[in-house]
């Protein structure tokens, strides 16, 4: 094999079974990380798959030519209603055609539009109003933060038809259907045994479900829901209408409302657990009774209380806290696989034949090189404020991936996280509730990672200076 010279366990060079086993157990990230610790930044993890963990490789794989390499069939798992969407589209030319239909709705300048930002701000305030009603009693921030994330993304997609799951039981049920599902083994079964899966899904009716609360909600709005002109759905409809009117371009055929539903469903799903889990891990850590966590809370509160009118971009400590949270507990910590183009390529000086699967994973990018991130397991927001090494740290920060196929929702997610933390920590201090026994260990799903017991009990208390 042209990969024979690469470091890695002999068994992995001979068969994919060890990797598959860890994938089915939700352990792929840890397995790959352990191999990096043993073999270094380049490791062969399966006969046809190589994992990398440095910026040179990430640059080539994810940003060469703008969008990097095409995706492998793993991403077929993310189509909805039997229709592809931007995330599930494998080939980068087609991907670009889809992206241009609505990309501007996720730009920083669009998010700064008061009509758009106020939708998210309202939900952040709704969360704070809710916790204010029960100060001094345990509150499950796992639930609250996932409701907040769901309300924010559905507002961004569909305002005024967005959900209000923080206060509306029907919306809460949708959050629960989305966030408490267990699809990991089913997803890998479908990937590796497509024929068996077809038989199984025919017999059981499982698969690209059209039923369920989330599917019903999205399909109904995508078909004929009336939404504001600043929403993502409105932009897609305008692009669809334009596309249908022009008969020339063949790269991206016109969409019908089901294609639109598939796209919106993907954004909805991408926007709830990522932001919800990221905030939950972060707020849990800030609430710990350690001197280090208390110090971070105090410094964060001081910055927010002293600059109540400052724009979010002018709050450097808030920015550092969010970035450090996403570094340590990346909501998507595992590999983003890509396929080496035909003809082969050099990745970080390593010659790879076309068709080789390559990837980097945030979990390892954020830990392996201790010259870039010293004491990598420690949560130290201050590291982002140091001038020395800032370029390197940013090049290794991989929570949103990189290049044209990196996270389109990055600015939205950062806005949500910062608005929420600003609302909470300007007014309240948080600490772990006495009855909190749930595990906060990172529990990997097909593409994201959530707290193991999906519960995080916290107390909110007013800061002394507000009493
Ligand atoms: C902290 C929160 C978030 C994190 C850490 C995150 C991370 C990521 C990452 C790593 C990818 C690339 C994955 C891959 O290539 O396999 C991605 C893609 C994507 N994300 Fe996010 N995401 C977050 C929030 C959001 C939100 C709020 C949305 C809402 C729309 C969103 C929508 C998407 C979409 C649509 C893609 C596919 C992009 C494409 O194919 O071009 N994400 N995200």
TrEMBL record:
This is Cytochrome P450. It comes from Polyporus arcularius HHB13444. PANTHER family: CYTOCHROME P450, P450, PUTATIVE (EUROFUNG)-RELATED. One of its GO terms (molecular function) is oxidoreductase activity, acting on paired donors, with incorporation or reduction of molecular oxygen. Keywords: Heme, Iron, Metal-binding, Signal. Pathway: Secondary metabolite biosynthesis. InterPro entries: Cyt_P450, Cyt_P450_E_grp-I, Cyt_P450_sf, Cytochrome_P450_monoxygenase. It comes from the Eukaryota. Heme binds at residue 407. Pfam families: p450. Its cofactor is heme.
